[in-house]
Amino acid sequence: MTNILFAFSIIINIFLIWYIVQLLRRFLAFQGDLDEFVLKLEEYEGHIEIVHNLERFYGDETLSNLLRHSKDVAQECKQFQNVILNQEEEYGEEEEQEH
Fold this sequence. Notes:
This protein has 99 residues and is mainly α. It has helices spanning 2-53, 61-98.
């Protein structure tokens, strides 16, 4: 009977390790996608700023609002990114304290 329970425990542990690895891969992929998204958003913001500063469009209220809005969205993405990174760092610190 104990052999069956031991084998069952090993199977469950292997499954849980596999599941944790899959979750970590997804999280790392998500984090990489978020980093890439923030970079693209910053490039977009820079492009709008260049167009806004052109003599032809300088002072255009629509471009000013678009530039302001893109800066706000970029800031929110950076804050979200920081929240994710801080949670990851806090989790790592908790594990270090346990050992």
